[in-house]
């Protein structure tokens, strides 16, 4: 069967200065990771493409082109790997209709696998099958129609490319930038792709208000919790305290959780997927009245992304803090405290600001890279 899918040509894509550029460790799924070169908004993307006919055979083509593309789609085999996973919806669809939508995924698997051969893993959002979204597409012609019998190398340069969104691999959504080379043929095109990773730095906010709230159960429990701020960078520390004003429950322990909620689609067809990234025990044993429990949670050890708000009107990713109390009866008192939204940003590390000749220059391979943008209110 492999002979039906073999290609008559090899295509190699090499980006300029790969050894001098920072590489980002990208999580593909629970068991797979890969390295991708890091670029910034405004940087040029340049390199070389080598087209090599196999076995020295003559290759007829109708043109060779290179594209730089930015897309938003979902990971193809999400429902194959997670058949029991459910989505919460804010649309008017009934639960049965949503279940029907999920169970139709295996029925269209063959068609999606066919699409995988063409797009290398890009596929439409599950609630809008038949479309994926290209928000960026630049093209350069490398060769006019003709023949190739020997390896040939073509240079390309996409100058000062605006990369308005940050790369993202989520539960359902994947925002991707890549270089695509297409050798057009009468029978079937030959396509190769190479991904890059994009960071979008933000300026730390001047105003960063604290979070303070009183919650409890009447005549049973009254607590006051406070977090020192509401906006954090990826390597920040969550600092706060829990103060017990009234305790008439036998509390066994207390946990602080970080929850990531991914929203896809637009109203009225929005679907939410939430995952708990970490459960951190901040208290073990029953507290007494007037006791204060300190909170100190380091974010650098967790797989976080920045907060995304309505990216290209396709998806959002938000983070929440959840305080959970468990009493001796194992009843979880998480309805007492609402989910507290926090805003996570990507900022230049302090060392990069202090030593620009070292760290900062390693992240900038082009003087045209744009400076970090202010944090939205």
Automatic annotation (TrEMBL):
Family listed: Belongs to the VPS26 family.
Species this chain originates from: Trichoderma harzianum
Stored PANTHER family: VACUOLAR PROTEIN SORTING 26 RELATED
Gene3D superfamilies per the UniProt record, alphabetical: 2.60.40.640
Region (Disordered): 357-377
InterPro entries: Arrestin-like_C, Vps26-related
Origin: domain of life: Eukaryota
Name of the protein this chain belongs to: Vacuolar protein sorting-associated protein 26B-B
Composition-biased stretches (Polar residues): 357-370
